[in-house]
Amino acid sequence: MMYRIVSILLLLSSPAFAQQTPVEVASEVERVSVFLQGAQVFRTAEARVPAGKSVLKFVRLDPDLNPESIQFNAEEGLMVLGVSHSRNYLEEPLATEEANTLKALIKAKRDSVKLEQAMIDVYNQEEIMLMANQSIGGSTSGVELGRLESAANFFRQRLTEINQQVLVRNSRVATLNEELQELQNQLQRRVAEQRSSYVSELEVTINAASSGVRDFELNYVTGRARWSPLYDLRVSDIDSPLELFYKAEIAQATGEEWENAQLVLSTADPRQATVKPNVRTRRVGFYNPRAVRSRRPMDMEESAKSSGMALDEVVVAQESAASEPIMNIPAPPVQTRSNTTTTEFEISEPYTIESDVDPTLVDIARHDLNPEYEYYAAPALSEKAFLTARLTGWESLNLLSGSSNLFFNGTFLGQTYLDMENVSDTLDLSLGTDQGIVIERKREEEFTKKQLLGNRKTDIYGFEIEVRNNKSVPVSIVIEDQIPVSSDNQIEVDLQEEGGADVEEETGVLRWEEVIEPASTLTLSFRYSIRYPKGRTVRVY
Fold it and tell me: What secondary structure does DSSP assign to 297-315, as a single string?
């Protein structure tokens, strides 16, 4: 079907258009382009239109759609004369069935309260009657002792029963009043919620050359939707490829269900500024303290905005990397399109995305990667070996920053974060710890001692690191430890034995790159001394 596309910013109908009686048209969501924040919703409709001028009313649309983004597409032979957007605040405060149910419950509670109060009145009247008829026999000549005792027992027993019944009934009234108040509050809340809700409506004035059934399409942008990436990283062993499952969490709160809609996931973000910045002239002058007035402190971002300076003025150059280690597997049927500034993932199967519910998980892609596996350990901080995967040629994967679930040999290890904002030509993926490598760091007591010579004191420290490979394959591992760096010229730090490590002088980091054979143990050791004036105390921080 050929359409004549009309882009509408927002055209207000003229008074002549308003005289037409609108014909309500039901539309359905056919496809949605979901952005990282926001979405473009495409709806289709079919309606019979008469020849000449008429007004179509598209109802129950997203309440917070952006009116300036509305586009209306019509078939050839139709002329669009105007489009107006309005919000319809729902007149019916509550669905009839729900309202009747709440009102019936409220009436029943009120009736129960009245019944209990009526019974309390009965008991009160009985008590008054008993108290008014306390005389026995009607004379003052005396009463037989037996009759007096029997009457006293009767009065005492009956008054006790009356008081107990009144207490019980009062307790029931209090409970019923609480339940009644909660039902009334519930009814009021639901009425308030319904009265504050609204939907968008579009009235489109058209002019048709002839009558007939016509197809229409309209689309608009809403901010009440989003998608975010989520990954599964699965490793069976370090001799096998790394499986990367690329997924998307999609959520929307447009107030309607996207039923069996075709989805396109876009990395575009309509919230970002699209106007390029302009460099302004920056001048320098002499500082005049008298011209400075007291004002509230600004944070760095506010200060940067007020001065016209950027927070970051660093240009990072990245070299292109080879893509040989990557092998794609056609798993989920998704078509990827790389545009000039964005990437789109077209999901071939339709999905239903409900409003205001938990995000829906959609598969985007699956890749088998052949990274370079490497273990890393910093025994002074953690006596565990962390498996990492170093990957080149990652640019073709179109990855975004997001959370990742880790699985090793079928066991869920936890979550990590894939940071694609700070990555160079090699992508380092942390895959969690491996219990097959046992590490122990201990102090060598025979080399740890304190010496005093003249007015200088020397503390000597020695450490030993043992790494055992309990796996059935060799492992490559990077081990890092550290010696302190002096922050005072009166303190001297001397590395006496580096144990074969590469030493970074400025930071004091010791680095070993080793290969450990199966069922073998690697032993490393290093020693250093700290010299400082006698009578002073040093601390490492």
Answer: ---HHHHHHHHT--S---P
Q: Around Cβ 505, how many Cβ atoms within 10 Å?
A: 8
Residues 6+ apart with CB under 8 A from 538: 459, 491, 530, 532
- 254 φ/ψ sector (left φ>0, alpha ψ -120 to 50, else beta): alpha
CA–CA dist 74, 44 (Å, integer): 10
> CB-side exposure of 45: number of CA atoms within 13 Å?
23
**Phi and psi dihedrals of 132, rounded to 5?**
-80, -15
Cα–Cα distance between 501 and 495 in angstroms, integer? Answer: 11
In CATH, the architecture of 437-533 is Sandwich (2.60)
Residues in the chain: 541
539 C-beta neighbours (distance < 10 Å), count: 5
Both structure tokens of 100: 């009747």
Give residue 250's identity as a one-letter amino acid code.
I
Q: Is residue 283 within a helix (H) or strand (E), and if so which, with residue range?
A: none
Longest dimension (CA), the chain: 124
DSSP letter string over 402-438?
A: EEEEEEETTEEEEEEEE--SS--SEEEEEEEE-TTEE
Per-residue pLDDT of the chain (541 residues; tens, 9 = 90+): 444 444 444 444 444 444 568 888 989 999 999 999 999 999 999 988 999 999 999 988 888 888 989 998 887 778 888 888 888 775 444 455 677 788 888 888 888 888 888 888 888 888 887 777 665 554 445 556 677 777 777 777 888 888 888 888 888 889 988 888 888 888 777 665 555 467 888 899 999 988 889 899 999 999 989 999 999 999 888 888 999 999 999 999 888 889 999 999 998 877 665 566 677 766 655 455 544 343 333 343 443 333 333 333 322 222 233 333 333 333 445 766 656 567 899 998 999 999 888 899 999 989 999 898 899 999 999 999 998 888 888 888 888 889 999 888 888 888 888 888 877 788 888 888 888 999 999 998 887 778 888 889 999 999 999 999 999 889 999 999 999 999 888 999 999 999 999 999 999 999 999 999 999 999 999 999 999 998 888 888 7
Pairing of strands 52-61, 23-25: parallel
What are φ and ψ of residue 85, in 5° steps? -110, 140
Q: Give CA torsion, residues 9, 10, 16, 20, to 10 deg.
A: 100
User: In this structure, are residues 41 and 62 in contact, taking their beta carbons and an 8 Å threshold?
Assistant: yes
